[in-house]
Amino acid sequence: MTLSTAMDWRGGLDAGDLSAEVLVRRSLDRIQSLDPTLHAVLTTDADRSLALAQAADRRLQAGERTPVLGLPVVLKDNLNWMGLPTTCGSAVLEGYRSPYDATVVSRLLAAGAIPIAKANMDEFAMGSSGEFSAFSPTRNPWDTTRVPGGSSSGSVVSVAAGYAPLALGSDTGGSVRLPASFCNVTALRPTYGVLSRYGLTAMASSLDVVGPIGASAADVASVLQVMAGRDPLDSTSVELPQVGDLFPLLPADLRGLKIGLPSEYWGEGLEPGTRGVLEAALGELDRLGASPVKIRLPHTRYAIDAYYLICTSEVSSNLSRFDGVRYGSRAERDDLTDMISDTRDRGFGAEAKRRILLGTFCLSRGYYDAFYLKALKARTLITRDFLEAFAQVDLLATPISPGTAFPFGAKTGDPLSMYLADVYTVTTSLAGLPSLSMPAGFSEGLPVGLQLIGPPLSDVRLLAAAHAYQQATSHHLKTPSLPS
């Protein structure tokens, strides 16, 4: 089956062959039909989504056009949409409803996009598999015995299963890119600061970004365009050059583009089937005119250690606010200290507790210099490696994951093995670089993604290169066998 992209839906809306209300009703029906199996969605508000669709139709009839006007979109449940629950996949936020919109959500609403659901996720975005939600694990639509990847599991599955053509996730160490690879969709981790983090529940503030997801690079570009830009509510936000050129991306070849192949990413550890798919994708990039260049990123070997020391340290600080005093669930105890302790013990799952404890240890007296400070120094060395590489090449091409989606439970008993699933994605997170996962083919019937990495603020170039590849291939249009 061939996937309908956001661009297909956009064309139908602009021609008057489709209406936003029809698309939203179709999306809600598909969620009702498929989600009892896939568990990608936590919350819907059909009346509100249909009202937004009717408003979008009036704007379309008046001749207004934006890249996302009338298109359904799914939001990861760590993004605030005013009036709806924001659980972050955790029991500790039971009963909490967002009092405001995240900046990216308000910009989507202003452009006429229609949120239709809040998506399931690993608790507080801590997970690489989609198994760590407090509510239920999300399932991979290509094989429901396998994980979809995490932590933006529900957002990615919503696009792969055809609930909506667009979704927003968040990416801290690979959380849109890994599930995109496992589920055959396209997802972008933008340059840090390109998308405002205001209204995104913080997990690790120096690493978190909002990540757009779609069937194609053109779809991702359409939603990125309306959200990008400085936000006075987020002091880390930046302007993205050439953002006006994002929509539509014109077909292009890749002549003259130098693509670096880091030896540290293409060595041992890649499953043979995955390697074969990725090498074929590199061959296609070469056919389109790109020149492969072998390079080195020598400090990559420190990336997993540095990432998990920095990430858990920031987690321990950010999650201290969830104590039952101000919002969310609360244990009924007379003593304040007992109430806070019981609330956190009952509300947080095992993975959240593990990272809070690890981070608290890393930041404690006597260990700060040995762990956290040393990890920050490694982060600087990793960033320098990338900047030196980009003096030689335009983009880098790497795997996303050592293999395809793994079976449920295969790694939950071995946290280190789970963390190593992020071995190819955490480096760009540490360096704040844009990186993109795009479908590259299939190994034994399961999707494989290729990662493109660019220098800071090269998001447009990344999307254009992915678009050129997708104009010459059809991997991204293939869909899992699900009821129509």
Please outline the helices and strands.
Elements: H1 6-15, H2 20-38, E1 41-43, H3 46-61, E2 72-76, H4 103-110, E3 114-119, H5 153-160, E4 166-171, H6 177-183, E5 186-189, E6 209-214, H7 217-227, E7 258-262, H8 272-287, E8 291-295, H9 303-318, H10 336-347, H11 350-363, H12 368-389, E9 395-399, H13 415-419, H14 426-431, E10 435-443, E11 446-453, H15 459-472
The helix-strand sequence is HHEHEHEHEHEEHEHEHHHHEHHEEH
Q: Please, what is the average pLDDT?
A: 95
How large, in whole angstroms, is the Cα Rg? 21 Å
Q: Termini distance?
A: 10 Å
Helix-residue proportion: 25-40%
Give the CATH topology.
Answer: Amidase signature (AS) enzymes
pLDDT under 50 segments (min length 5)? none
Give an overview in words.
An 11-stranded mixed β-sheet has the order 1-3-2-4-6-5-10-11-9-7-8, sandwiched between helices. The chain is built from 15 helices and 11 strands. By secondary structure, the protein is an alpha/beta fold. α4 links the parallel β2 and β3 (114-119). α9 (303-318) crosses α11 (350-363). It has a single domain (6-297, 384-477), classed as Amidase signature (AS) domain (Amidase signature (AS) enzymes), CATH 3.90.1300. It starts with 5 loop residues before the first helix and ends in a 12-residue tail after the last helix. The chain has helices spanning 6-15, 20-38, 46-61, 103-110, 153-160, 177-183, 217-227, 272-287, 303-318, 336-347, 350-363, 368-389, 415-419, 426-431, 459-472; strands at 41-43, 72-76, 114-119, 166-171, 186-189, 209-214, 258-262, 291-295, 395-399, 435-443, 446-453. The model has no long low-confidence stretch (mean pLDDT 95). Helix content is 38%, strand content 13%.
